[in-house]
Amino acid sequence: MTEPQGTVIDSKWLGIIAVLFGILLLANHGNELLKQSVLTPGSVAELVLAADCRVDELEEEGLSQQECELMVSNVQIALASSPQWFRPAMLWLSALGILFAIFSIVTGIAFVGGRKMNLTMAKFCFAALVAVDLCTFIAAVNTGPLLRVNYLWPTLLWFFIHLTFFAMVMSYSTSIERANN
């Protein structure tokens, strides 16, 4: 893979940005996987109990009583607003997101290292991330307004980031093909 002179996209910068966003995406999907694993139907959080906000813990965390109650309300909203299919769907989408985030980090490292890489794999990686984002968007749209507010905008942001990466890889691939012909 010879990088032609005068290409618009520098593969090293593409790689650096892919690694950075890959790490952020890995953290994002990891948090979502943890959230969906912890907030399960039938758990204590779903019992709609009053917030047990002890004064010593509030002082230690620097929280007010109202902030503690709002945090408990957020958990209850997530549990009460989730349709039955939502949790398993988000578990799968988060697991796929983690897998492709790691793949995007590896792809970015290959771009930075200047190693010969299969651009088809890079295209697949970012196309798969766009697909995961689209599925997450569809899932968020089909929930209630309380969950939608938590998922819709971050999902749209990731969708456009991954769509931009896909477009950059396609453009880079086209410039490589032109240079080699």
Structural account:
The chain is mainly α and 181 residues long. It folds into 2 domains: 11-39 and 83-180; 42-81, no CATH class. The protein has helices spanning 11-38, 55-61, 65-81, 86-113, 119-141, 145-180. The longest helix has 36 residues, at 145-180.
Give me a quick take on this structure:
This protein has 181 residues and is mainly alpha-helical. It has helices at 11-38, 55-61, 65-81, 86-113, 119-141, 145-180.
Number of domains: 2
Strand content: under 5%
The backbone outline, from C-alpha atoms, is: elongated
Q: Which series of helices and strands comes N to C?
A: HHHHHH
The radius of gyration over CA amounts to: 21 Å
Class by alpha and beta content? mainly alpha
Helix content: over 70%
What is the terminal separation in angstroms?
A: 12 Å
Number of strands: 0
Number of helices: 6
Largest sheet: none
- Average pLDDT rating: 87
Oligomer: single chain
Low-confidence sequence ranges: none
